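S., here's the first fold you wanted:
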Amino acid sequence: MAGRAYGWARDSARSLVAMRALRMGPTPCSFVGRASMYVHVGAPRAPPARRGEVCAARRRPSAFSSRSGRRWCGSLRETQSRASVLNMKTDLLRPQLPSALYIHLPFCKKRCYYCDFAITAVGEHSVNQPLPAPVEQRYAEYVTQLLKEIQQSIAGLRSRMQAHELPKLKTLYLGGGTPSLLPIRYLEDIMALLRAELGFEPDIEITMEMDPGTFDVALARSFKQLGVTRASVGCQSFSDRLLSICGRAHNTDDIYRAIDALHSAQFDVYSLDLISGLPGQSLEDWHESLRCVERIAPVHVSTYDLELASSTKFGRLYKPGESPLPSDEDAALMYKESISFLNSIGILHYETSNFARPGFESRHNQVYWRNEAYYGFGMGSTSYVEGKRVTRPRTLRAYYDWVDQYALLNGTLDDSATDLAEQLEDTLMLGLRRVSGVDLAALEGTFGVPVQQVLCAASERFLVDGRAQLSGSVLSLRDPEGFLFQNDILSDLLLALERAALFKR
C-alpha cells in the first residue's frame, strides 16, 4: 500500500479493500512498512492473511521507523515508567523473557494458489506410508538445522542474561507449512529438546496446525500423546469446487474424516480456518461454510479474507473486487455475517479474525496481540526477544546458511531494537484487534506520557458515529462497523500520536 497512512474511502466495502492490503486477517489495520509484522501469526493455512493468530512469528516486521522516517527515541531502557499495560504481568519497557514459542515447519504437499508463506512443496505421500527417500532426507536435514538453531539461541540467551534457568513455556505453536506432514519421530525430537532446554508449564497450551488428508486417527492419537492440546485445522471452505479453485490438496470428505479422527482421538479442543473472498465464492457459499461449522461445533474458528499477494498465482490472475472475486460489498457482507452468525451459535468474536467459545480463546496468539515477547524458530519465522525482532530467511538453503552463521556467533546475531514510540504504536495497533480493546489509562501509566488525552481526542468522531466506544478508559471497536473501518480508525490514532511528539530524543 503506497501513499499516506490515512484517507481511505469511508464506506465499509471499500474500507475492506484497504484491509486486504495488509495480511492481518479480514480486517487488519495497515501502515506503510508495518503490514508484514502482523500478517498471520498463525494465515489460512495459507492465505497470506492468515491468523491474527500466529503471524507475528511468520513474518519479518519491517525496521519499524515512523511514517515520517524519524526515530523518536533510542533504547527500550530510556524510561522509568513501570506500570502494566493491557493487564500484562510483564514490563513492556524492558526486554522480556519469553514464555511463548513458535516453530515453523515449512513442508506442504503443494503450494496453494493464494499462499505466499515461507513453505517448500514435497509432493503427495500417503499417511503412515514409507516416505520417498528425497523427502525423508529433506525432513531430516531441516529438523537437524532447526534443533541446532534452538540450542544455540537458548545457550546465547542464557549467557547474555546470566541466567541458568529461563521461564518455562506457557504456549507453543507448531505452524507451517503443514506440521502434520512431518513424521512423528521428528516432532518427538523437537518436543524433547524444548522440554530439556526450557521446560513446559503444567497447563501449557500446545497448538499444532493440521491439514485434512495428512493424518488419521492413529496419528491424531500420537499428536495428543506428544502433548499437543489444541489442533488448528485448515479447512478453508466446505465447497469442493472452491477447494479445487484454490489448489488445495484436500476435499470436503477429507475435512469430515479429519474431524472424525480428532473426535476418535478425544481431541476436543480444535479450531477451524475458513477463507472468504475466494474466486467464484457467493454469499450462499459462505453461509453454507458457516452452517457446516455450526454442525461440527468446534470451540474456535478463524476467518480470513483473501489477500492477493503479488507472488501468488491468485495475485497474478486477479484484482481485488473484480470478477471472479466477490465484489467489495459482498466481501464486507461475508465478514459481517461471520460475526453475526458465529456469535449467534455461541462462538464469540474476540479478535479481528477470531471467534471462540468462552474459555477457548487462543492463549498463544494473545501473546502477539499484547505485544509481548516470544521465541520464533525455523525458516521464515520472526522472534521478539530482548526488545529485538530477528527474522529468518525464507528459503531452505538460505536458512541453513543463516543457522550455521548464527551458531558461529554463539547465538548473538543482532537486529534493531524497537523504541518507545514504536512500542506504544504496536501495542495500540495490536490491542485494538481485540474486541476487549485497549485500556488507555494503563497505556499512559506504562509509557509515562499523556496518551489518553491524545487518543480520546483523535477517536472522537468514531465515538460519535458508533464505530468505536469508550468504557471508562478502555477504547474498543464496535462490531461490525468498527472492525470494517479499523484502517481508518488506527490511521487517525497513530497520526495523532505522531503529531503529539510525545517522546523526545
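And the second, which I think is the more interesting of the pair:
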Amino acid sequence: MSHLASSAARPKRLGARIARGGRSCALPAMLLAALVLGGSGETAAADKAIVVRAARLVTPDGELQDGGLVVIRDGKIAQVGETAPADAVIHEYDDAAICPGLIDVAAALGAFGNLSENQSALQPAAAARDALDRFAPQLDAALRSGVTAFALSPDDQNLVGGRIAICRSGGAGVGGLIAPDGPMKLSLSPDVFKSDREPTSRTGALLMLRSAIESARSGKAAAGDALAQLAAGKIPAIVSAPSGADALAASEMVEDYGLKLTIMHTRDALDVAGEVARRKVGVIVGPLTWNSSRRETAAAAAYEKAGVPVAIAGGAPLFSADSVRLGAALAARGGLSAAAARRAITSNAAAVLGMSERLGAVKPGLEADIVLFSGDPIDLRSRVLAVYVGGRRVYLAPADADEQ
C-alpha cells in the first residue's frame, strides 16, 4: 500500500501528560504550551530528565518499531527504550510516533539576499552562513513541519560556490548555526554559464573545475585554503548535476581525484545509478513535487536498488515547508522502501552533511532533536504534534488541531 494513503494513527490526546514521581496531571495543549513553551522553548529542572514516550519510534535504520521511550538529559539523548528514571518529567503522546528531527539537505531558509557572488565562478572562500537571517519567519514554518535542521546552501550560479552552513530552524527562539563551515557547494548546472565571464559552456565549466582542483592539489595553495582541503579529500562537497552526463562527470572526479562528493541528481537516475554505485558516491534526490514525473519519483528507488545511499532534498522556501516529507512520500510511492525513505530525510541527510555524530537518529549521545508525529512520518496524513530541539520542546500542536 502506498505511504501516501496508508493509515495514520490519530492520537488519543494532543496534550502531553506531565508526570513527576509517578503522579500525572492532564493539561489541555494550549494551556500547556502557554505554560512551558514561552518564547524560547521548554526547559526542565537542571536535575530532572525529560522522558518522551509514544506508541512507536523510528529506529536509526529507518524502521518504525512498536514502543518508543526516549530519555533526554542536558539537551542530548541519554537512553532509548529503557525504563524511565523515577523522578523524570514524562511527556506522553499516546498513539504517536517518535522520529528524529527532519533535515533538509538543500534549502534557502532564512537566506537574506542572494546566495552567490557572481564576479567569479570560483568562490571557495564564500560562506552561506553570512546570508542567514535567524529571525526569518520561514524558520518557524519549517519547524512546525518537523524540520529541525537544514543546509543553507549557495545556489547553482558558481562552479565553486563556497561553504554550506548547517543551521537550526525555529526563528528567534532556537534558530541559528549548528556548523558554520559545512560541505563545499559545487555546481555543474547550466546556471553557471555566463556571457560576461567564464565559463560560457559545459566544456569550459568542466575544464575550469578540473584545473582548479589540480592547481589546489599541486601544493601551491595557502595553508587552510578551502579548495585545497577539498582537493585533498579533507572536506566533503555537494555538487549539483542536473543531467546524467553531469552526474557521470562528477562521479569521474571522485575516481580521478579522491574527492568526497555527494551528487544532486534526479532526472536520469535510472540510467546512471549503476555507475554512481560503482564509484561509491552518495546522492541527493529532489526536490520532488506533485508535478514530478514518474521517472523522477522512481529515482530514489533506482539508487537504492543499486546500493547507493540516498538523501532527499526539500528545497524550502522555494518549495513548501513540508516538502521534505512530501519528497520522501513520493519516493516511497515510486518504489523506495519505507525504511530508506525515512532515512533519506533523517540519518542519510545527516551523513551527507557530515553531521552523523550529532543529528539524524534517535540514539544515545546525539542531540535531542525529535519530532512527534500522529502516525508514520512518510504518511502525509500524519501531523506534527510536538517538536524538540536540543532537548527543549519548542512546538506543541494546539488542542483543536485534530479538528482542523
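Why I say that: Confidence is low (pLDDT under 50) at residues 5-40. The chain has two domains: 17-100+362-403, 102-352.

Talk tomorrow,
H.
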